[in-house]
Design a protein that fits this description.
single chain; alpha/beta; Urease, subunit C, domain 1; TIM Barrel; globular
Length: 426
């Protein structure tokens, strides 16, 4: 099967180029300035289409197995494709928790059966994500992208140190949800302006950065490769910036909602409820500076779908988590690139180049590589409407916003995983 993306603007390191992209047997065969004459290719022409390497999201909750009423491998990967994402890393808060080769198998079987983009599972750090006993890291190592107990921080220092020692021996990254549960104090939104004005229990910034501080000391001791999930506080950014200067093998991610919102913009609605919470203006500014100077190298979505009733309890009683796979690129392009806070190249680095390099996943947009790519119309504007989402989860703080950047096409291994209406084929 041959596919020709005919005379489109292709985003490359040296800048955008008008090229034709020929794909055969799932790989990019050529990138040429002249359109090849082919009689046996499916030709796709998309007006205003810009071709990007498929985005890589290293923090996604696909919910299957165990919680398929919230999301499935099928619905979650289709949502990813609609957002231009061709590789996702799936978090282990599942049933069964993937803490052994046997418990990993149900997820692997669902991926093989239903995924329309690449899914790279995480193995749990501890058995059942309970923080009491280390999981079978050695047994899972060949089948997982890294190790994480996302959803819970590893509370015991000695256990985290041993996990780091074993992960280093296996050549794997420890991916940490950093939350000191002793400091949360029952808080469920940021301990800041909105919480104080509206009588909500606040979650202090220290619940995150204190555990990051602990873990960075362990990284210095062990030499482990370490990655911090969903960074939300200015203190965490400062700690990671210093750790990089000290030569530690540390990376981190933040999310679109922490880069766009601050706590004074909260609403009494479950679509603003997640963990960590949306924090202060100062935290948002520090995160922006972090992505600008390279301290924060990745944007992930923490896509965490729930059933409608689970998000109907306002800020206090709703479950933590929002969806983001289908909105991440247009939201960031609209809020950060168009106003000049980031270049388009920086955004591509955040959503493709850096996560791909760190975790050894994804495919570059070059000849010989797997045809994992996406096409966006950057001039197309539209309102974000949850009823349009392919994800089973519909809760988004970006609902109603008008954004720029419409995904027209996504290919995964050369197969069409998503195609919007319109465009021409022959």
């Amino acid at each position: 099967m041959k596919i020709l993306l005919n005379q489109m603007t292709v985003f490359r390191k040296g800048g955008p180029e008008k090229l034709s992209v020929l794909i055969e047997d799932g790989r990019i065969v050529s990138l040429s300035k002249q359109a090849p004459t082919l009689s046996d290719a499916q030709v796709i022409e998309l007006k205003n289409g810009m071709v990007f390497p498929g985005f890589v999201d290293v923090h996604v909750h696909l919910r299957e197995p165990g919680f398929s009423y919230k999301e499935t491998i099928a619905t979650g990967t289709r949502a990813a494709a609609r957002g231009g994402v061709t590789t996702v890393c799936s978090m282990p808060n599942l049933k069964p928790v993937p803490d052994s080769p046997a418990n990993l198998q149900p997820q692997l079987e669902a991926i093989r059966r239903d995924a329309v983009v690449h899914v790279c599972p995480y193995g749990a750090i501890t058995v059942g994500e309970k923080g009491e006993q280390l999981a079978d890291l050695e047994g899972m190592a060949s089948q997982v992208v890294a190790f994480s107990d996302d959803g819970r921080g590893v509370q015991d220092r000695a256990m985290m140190k041993e996990a780091m020692v074993r992960a280093k021996a296996l050549g794997k990254v420890i991916v940490a949800h950093c939350e000191d549960e002793s400091l949360v104090g029952g808080g469920y939104i940021h301990d800041g302006v909105y919480a104080k004005a509206h009588g909500h229990r606040g979650n202090p910034s220290a619940s995150e950065w204190k555990q990051v501080e602990r873990d960075l000391a362990l990284v210095a001791e062990t030499g482990c490769a370490y990655h911090v999930c969903h960074v939300s506080t200015k203190e965490t950014v400062a700690l990671i910036r210093q750790a990089k200067k000290d030569g530690l093998d540390v990376t981190c991610e933040t999310t679109p909602h922490y880069l766009v919102f601050h706590d004074e913009q909260l609403q009494e609605d479950g679509r603003f409820k997640m963990n960590p919470p949306i924090r202060s203006k100062a935290d948002r500014q520090a995160l922006l500076e972090g992505v600008q100077d390279g301290t924060v190298e990745m944007v992930a979505t923490d896509h965490a779908p729930h059933a409608a009733e689970e998000k109907a309890g306002g800020l206090e009683k709703s479950y933590n988590g929002i969806v983001g796979l289908e909105t991440a690129f247009p939201v960031l392009y609209t809020h950060l690139v168009r106003p000049g806070l980031l270049t388009l190249g920086q955004l591509v680095d955040l959503m493709h180049t850096n996560p791909a390099r760190r975790f050894g996943i994804g495919s570059a947009l070059e000849e010989g590589a797997a045809a994992d790519l996406t096409v966006f119309d950057l001039e197309a504007s539209y309102p974000i409407r949850p009823e349009d989402f392919l994800s089973l989860g519909k809760s988004s703080p970006f609902t109603g916003q008008t954004v720029y950047g419409k995904c027209l096409l996504t290919l995964s291994d050369g197969a069409i995983a998503w195609q919007a209406e319109g465009g021409t084929q022959r």
